[in-house]
Amino acid sequence: MTDTEAQHENRSADEGTRLETDSLGSLEIPSDAYWGIHTARALSNFPISKRPISVYPDLVVALASIKQAAARTNADLGVLDREKADLIDRACQRVIEGEFHDEFVTGVIQGGAGTSTNMNANEVITNVALELAGRPKGDYAFLSPYDHTNRSQSTNDVYPTAIKIALAFALRHLLDELEQLRASFAAKAVEFRHVLKVGRTQLQDAVPMTLGQEFHGFATTLGEDYARLSETLWLLAEVNLGATAIGTGITADPRYAAAVVTHLNEITGLRLETAPDLIESTSDAGGFMSFSGTLKRSAIKLSKICNDLRLLSSGPQAGFGEINLPPRQAGSSIMPGKVNPVIPEVVNQVAFSVVGADMTVTMAAEAGQLQLNAFEPVIAHSLLQSVTWLTQACWTLRVNCIDGITANEERLGTMVGSSVGVITALTPFIGYTAAAALAKTALLTGRNVADLVVEAGLMSRDEVDKQLSPARLSGLEATTMAIPIIDVDAEAAD
């Protein structure tokens, strides 16, 4: 027995029941429940995820917004009594404002292409409307979840439209957190703009740069992700509302599709458009795949940044030790004093989950058959979870990690001073061959590169100091007017 089923039984025992009937028979429903018989059957049929659809408030609001738009449209078209439409409208508004979300109890993973979710919404909204009318819950002869709240609709156009609206709402939160995270990295770039360090390629010493440049690069890549994710809004804008069962619009007034989207845009503040081919739109999940792919791109790049942060902060004695991450918790149950990079680690794991969810979305999209994709519930769950987790990952990375990072400037300075990589800056002046020979000597002897260059008579001390200044080593100041490269072979010939 699931937790929700147990709660169902407890409510029935403690507070009484009402009898509801469908084409399969009758069931006792807890008297105080706003959901009804279809939802009750779903609770019994799908004890899978242990997570109700209410874990995604944006989806609940999206469903209520669609039902509200439908009620207004049906009233305008004269296919639904204005009084009944107004009751449904008012009930939807209460759900949109955050009430009754705990009544959306159907599991996020379900068979039936989302019918249980659609009916859960129909039943809750209908019973709230009945309450507004001063009537008892379950008085479906007066107001029906099928004939009135679901008028001119099918799960097959309501559910995919609700997913897209919910993703658009959730994406706003993600973009807000992503921008704040980008700004945090940019602030650190300014803070560390004069801190020189050794850059690395393939985990080997390369050439100098500033720590500020490194963090600026992180900020730039997050800015690119913000732009790419913003572009996906158009993937969510085309909806099949009005298609009803398979795209032919059966049971809906011919004017309904265009009118309901107009109302829905007013309610949601989005810019939704009716798909030009409702039959194609009802069966196609390509937009969800593209959206998922962009989420995966962002997650992978964020994970790479976290990998870098863990490397740069490794140590504190036997690792890179270039930066300090804020200590968030004791790192070991056996090793006293150990502190681990737990915030980057949790963001890494979010990225792994997003990658897995993308594969789930891909397979679900591929498995659709004929006029409908029956697997949109797992698509919805995968995408909404990915957006939600990425949003929270950006928040915790910013607040609990990036804002508190400090630089180990003394250690960084020591590493730059002893690095043979600085000789790369002198190759335009002494040539690659001479530079390679001196780099080898410096490594073998541990001597300072600048001293070796001066002793070899290849450059004066002033020239070396000028070219090895922090500004020039990091590229902040352009290197100009290089002295002619010494041709050792030509001098020997003379």
What does this structure look like?
By secondary structure, this protein is mainly alpha-helical. The chain has 3 domains: 3-151, Fumarase C, Chain B, domain 1 (Orthogonal Bundle); 158-409, Fumarase C, Chain A, domain 2 (Up-down Bundle), CATH 1.20.200; 418-493, Fumarase/aspartase (C-terminal domain) (Ribonucleotide Reductase Protein R1, domain 1, Orthogonal Bundle). The protein is built from 21 helices and 8 strands. The protein has helices at 3-15, 37-45, 57-77, 82-96, 115-132, 145-149, 155-191, 211-231, 233-237, 256-268, 278-283, 286-312, 342-366, 376-400, 409-417, 427-430, 432-445, 449-455, 461-467, 470-473, 488-493, and strands at residues 17-22, 25-30, 196-201, 204-210, 238-239, 273-274, 323-324, 406-407. The protein has a two-stranded antiparallel ribbon with strand order 1-2. It starts with a helix and ends with a helix.
Mean pLDDT: 90
Low-confidence stretches: 8-13, 480-494
C-alpha-based Rg, rounded? 31 Å
The domain tally reads: 3
Give the helices and strands as they follow along the chain: HEEHHHHHHEEHHEHEHHEHHEHHHHHHH
Number of helices: 21
Give the CA-based shape: elongated
**Beta-strand percentage?**
5-15%
**Which CATH top level class of the largest domain fits?**
Mainly Alpha
Strand order of the largest sheet: 1-2
CATH architecture of the largest domain: Up-down Bundle
DSSP strand tally: 8
Helical percent range? 55-70%
Give me the CATH superfamily of the largest domain: Fumarase/aspartase (Central domain)
**Alpha-beta classification:** mainly alpha
For this structure, the CATH topology of the largest domain is: Fumarase C, Chain A, domain 2
Main pleated-sheet profile: 2 strands, antiparallel
Distance N terminus to C terminus? 95 Å
Biased composition (Basic and acidic residues): 1-21
GO biological process, one term: tricarboxylic acid cycle
InterPro entries: Aspartate_Ammonia-Lyase (IPR051546), Fumarase/histidase_N (IPR024083), Fumarase_C_C (IPR018951), Fumarate_lyase_CS (IPR020557), Fumarate_lyase_fam (IPR000362), Fumarate_lyase_N (IPR022761), L-Aspartase-like (IPR008948)
Domain Fumarase C C-terminal: 423-473
